[in-house]
Known about the structure:
By secondary structure, the chain is of the alpha/beta class. The protein has helices at residues 13-19, 38-47, 51-54, 70-76, 107-110, 130-140, 146-158, 164-173, 213-218, 223-251, 279-282, 305-314, 346-354, 359-365, 397-407, 422-430; strands at 3-8, 25-28, 31-32, 80-85, 102-105, 180-186, 254-258, 264-265, 271-272, 286-289, 295-298, 302-303, 336-342, 368-374, 377-382, 385-388. The protein has 16 helices and 16 strands.
Amino acid sequence: MNVAVIVLDTMRKDVFDEHFDWLPGVRYEEAYSTGSYTVPAHGSLFTGAYPSEVGAHSQHEYLPDDRPTLAGLLSDAGYRTRCFSANPLISHLFEFTRGFDETEYGWHILNALPETYNWSKDGFFSGPLRYPESVVRAVLDGDSRTLQSLKAGYEMFRAEDDGAAHFLRKLRSWSFGESEFLFANLMEVHSPYWAPPEYATTDARSVDMYADSEEVLAGDFDSELFWRAYNDCARYLSEVYRDIFDELTDEFDVVVTLSDHGELFGEHDLAGHRYGLYDELTHVPLVVSDGRGGRETVRETASLVDVFQTVLGLCDVDAPAETAGHDLRALPSDREAMTEFHGLRPLTFDQLRENGFPARDVERYDEKLRGIAFAGYYGHEDVSGFVEYADPGGVDPRSRLDAHARDSATVGTPRADRELADSTKSQLSKLGYI
């Protein structure tokens, strides 16, 4: 059994439904992430646990080493496990590649590594004539690994996108056997939005939602520009993913396509995904394709924690007893899925304070929040109270949230506990993480 799990990072469900209607498989229409950004969502994907249980969330952005990972369990069972990531948070820098036998990175991560020469500081994109000069600087820089730096610069120089084209090239170069597990994170619809010219409908070559982070949080932003640029990138990714999916279905028995979270474009007077558990952030696409073609719809509530249990089941590998998820092939009708927000990321919190954002407003958004989905209903806590998107049908969602909190082992974790290298901070800043 060969299984691939592909994350289309930051893909909203409504946009996915519009641009990926060609994708065959079982569509889980009521699937929810466990959080609203990369770390908690991937922590749940890789461990089958909620962010508070595994301890991977905004206050601790490293995958703890005290819980078995999906890749590790499959590797121990004899599977060859490979990872491709275009997202610096999903890398060895944050312990998220634990358990993978092989890892390949996109240019964002290659340029975030401390030992890689910082191409940006020499104006790498200022023109082709700067390339030879920058190469000489990289070779002479005694603090950099020359070959790694040259590879990073080459990938950055030739980058068609934020990783999908690179991943497609890797797929075509790899040889696959039996018992393979492949994971990939693709960043095409994550800010800054950067679509090839033939897909772009804006004048800007790149649109950075987080260029003015204070304005985004305060509700002062060009939502129409962001929305158009985002959709341009989604249309492009859909086309590239057709080729990726064709390659995958030649080698893999099951392909799971999903998103880790969505994005806000003015809804709730916010943009991006730095705050909250809104439906636009947590309601995600999830499609399981088995190569038979056709399309099926499932309405039972699903969660990203279920992917862990499902992949292990497909591969005939036992899941740990503490797994929170269900097998997607047998979801109970009374399933409840939880969402969690653990406050603003520490570096975001500090940046807003340092840049003069009113302290009372920063602290107002820096609160833990919870949400719950069941039987077509979703509701969550918010800075202004409790937000609901449907009638709960006589069920008290807050009491169910309290019951879940009592049943869960909440991990007490500190704020950021490691100092990041300047090169890593630079790449995270470009992606709006700082």
